Amino acid sequence: MKKNNLQKAIHKGGFILLLSILLFIPPIKAKAPQALAAEQGQTMEKQLLQLLQDEPSLKGAIAGISIRSAKTGDLRFEYNGDIRLRPASNMKLLTAAVSLAVLGKNYKFTTDVLTDGAIDEHTLKGNLYLRGKGDPTLLKEDFDEMAMKIKKSGIHVIEGNLIGDDSWYDEVRLSPDLIWSDEYVYYGSQISALTASPTKDFDSGTVQITVTPGKAIGDGAIVQIEPKTDYVKIVNHAVTGSPDSNSEIHFNRKHGENIVTVEGIIPIHASEEKEWIAVWEPSLYALNVFKQSLAEKGVEVKEDVKIGQTPSQAAVITSHQSIPLSDLLVPFMKLSNNSHAEILIKEMGRMVKGEGSWEKGLEVVREQVPQLGINPNTIVIRDGSGISHVNLIPANEISNLLYHVQKESWFPAFMNSLPVAGSDEKMIGGTLRNRMASASMSGNIKAKTGTITTVTSLSGYVKTKSEELLIFSILLNNLVDEEKGKDIEDKIVTILANQ
């Protein structure tokens, strides 16, 4: 009797134990339809999903991926493709495309020199006006050329004022979401209708500062500024270090000032270090450079240098035109120039809406994007450059844009502006010149990069091993390390290229 009871207890306990085990075994999760489709589909889909699921850097982050056939526009793969994400500088793809559609590839910016006075024995009895209309490409040599034309017109002395007119755009200098700590760096430069650039990279509203070591250890470093202007003052605390010291040069410009402090150490015999620093009030900066050019050409300004508006009766003495938009797109997109993007936004606002402001320019963008394949109800746009963390756009919308622009007459100019992976020439490879440079990849990827804190992006075109052209958009958000995000982008594009 006891044995039977024991057997029953064992059986009962075994059942309870079995039931307990079954209750604690985690249920087998049904695979998402997307994953099931990938297992049954192409190797490309399997590889992409494996990468996205296994990559440690994506833990806690959000990835939006969209792959299309460039020929048909059909989606070949998507992963969170309809989720709005911050695009960083991939926003420039929209700005460039809409600018080409609205302004045209041959569009040029004009700068005028005018006067409201008369010339009497080489003396201008009146004011001289420098009227800017947004040209971001004005160099010192362009101001020299305009100054020479003033001299050749018979003017040696200006009895009135030298007045800069920047009224073509509004007075708002910085985009809505630019953080205060970025206002002195080149990518945060102020936007004005009258501005100047130090080099042919055309970083408008900036000066280029070059630091080289002194002749001996302990000597002050040598600091030079381009263009040579007294509008920006340099306070040099940088010193020459020993050959084995680390190069650590820091730049700073205080809010509301044009005093740039240079500090740190540069090793003796080290290569020069360059930095581009945004100026405070680019209109006066351009006017100062122009006054310097006038003086060098023998034209004296007797009165003040200031900002004002050109009277309607003023007569044009000379004008300067920029390079066409198709050419400007090269430094704009290859080097990811934020000031170009914001100038183009304001220029479209001025030309279409009669007001050179972010508000009106972004209205133009929203009105135009439906014709380029983007649903405006899916996006949030705060600027033209992508520096705002408020901008939002799904990867599928960017890839759709890249599909639709192929049919436009201006598409060759758009395509030519994209960085080319692996090409070490600056104005070809741009921001991709040091990425995906292997023999099998170099030259096969043309795409726009993007980086802001916690965000990296890459969207463009890739030619596969089978000679198929694919469109891709990769948006990675909430990253801890943006450089690891770029490695992920490269891995994704490599998978595509190897198809």
List keywords for this structure.
five-stranded mixed sheet, disordered N terminus, 13 helices, alpha/beta, 23% strand, five-stranded antiparallel sheet, 499 residues, 31% helix
Query: What count of helical segments does DSSP give?
Result: 13
Rg, nearest Å = 29 Å
Q: Ranges with pLDDT <50 over ≥5 residues?
A: 1-41
Overall 3D geometry?
globular
Strand content: 15-25%
Strand order of the largest sheet: 2-1-23-22-21
> In terms of structural class, how would the helical and strand content be classed?
alpha/beta
Distance between the termini: 74 Å
| Main sheet attributes: strand count, strand direction, barrel closure | 5 strands, antiparallel
Question: How would you sum up this structure, described in words?
Answer:
The chain is of the alpha/beta class. 31% of the residues lie in helices and 23% in strands. The protein has 13 helices and 23 strands. A five-stranded antiparallel beta sheet has the order 2-1-23-22-21, sandwiched between helices. A five-stranded mixed beta sheet has the order 18-9-7-4-19, covered by helices on one side. A four-stranded mixed beta sheet has the order 5-6-8-17, with helices on one face. A hairpin with a 5-residue loop joins β1 and β2 (75-79). α7 packs parallel to α11 (411-417). The longest helix is centred in the N-terminal third of the chain and has 23 residues, at 2-24. Mean pLDDT is 91; it is low at 1-41.
